[in-house]
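#structure-requests
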Amino acid sequence: MRSPDDIIRLRNVDTGKTLRTLKGHTSSIYGIVFSPDGQLLASAGGKDMTIRLWDVATGATLQTLKGHTNPVYSVLFSPDGKILTSIDMNRTDERINRTLRLWNVDTGTEITNISKHIDEVGTVLFSPDGKLLSSKSPHDNLRLLDIHTGTVLQSFVGHTSPIYNVSFSPDGKTIASTDESNTIRLWDVDTGTTFRTLVGHTSPIYRILLFSPDGQILTSAGVEENNLRLWDVVSGKTLRTLEGHTDPITSVSFSPDGKTIASASWDTTVRLWDVDTGKTLQTFEGHTKGVLSVLFSPDGKTIASASIENGIVFLWDVTTIKELKRE
């Protein structure tokens, strides 16, 4: 669990008890992420301008990565866990400048400073095969980069306004992206061309853009919309619209088998939906304020949901629809 101060707390999912407290940063922590194997935790130290790598089992600091000259606000592991990306940010009256650095996790040394090779960096996302996708902010294109050299392998040009959200299909062959036009573009990764434009949303798609585990369905929601759309990736047609929430949707998660979707909303509820029929299977109630995130466990038996109410996290049993734990 991330704290607004300079301390990280690791908690046991079953009991809710604090396992260990990680101390070392000297400023608020802006971002944390587990390595793919769960053995490491990376944290972005914000104004102390460092990244720390922690041993999850012991809580010890393994590496302190130094090199950024502005506050670090984002960290991300590569799919194989061998490379870590970090982004810092510097605001001026004229613009926001971001620098992207890549680090060797084993040695703690910097591999490259991507900003030496390309201009302004926006968000970054790893493809399933470990290549790095970067959006050019605040402009309007995407680039696939070689993570060792920063070389641009593919450019995706077609957006005419700033890019808000990007998602890879599980096989890495398709990219979905959104901008302020309220539309979604589907890109062929090999050719860099758009093969579908999905139209139907009435507000920008900031957060909700997620492929199903088999890559055949894309789910999306506008920032001001109470409904969730399911799209057929091949045809670009709307399969169904999931209606039931009474306030905008903030987060979604597919079950591992892709048959169920969990959605969180500002209406304080979490809903389970049947993907094939679009019907609500269950509604989880217990939060008293808007729910910001929801996530299925890897075995699909548990759902975690978090709200703005003092950082409280709920764990739900999917089968019995009972609250397991709150912390």
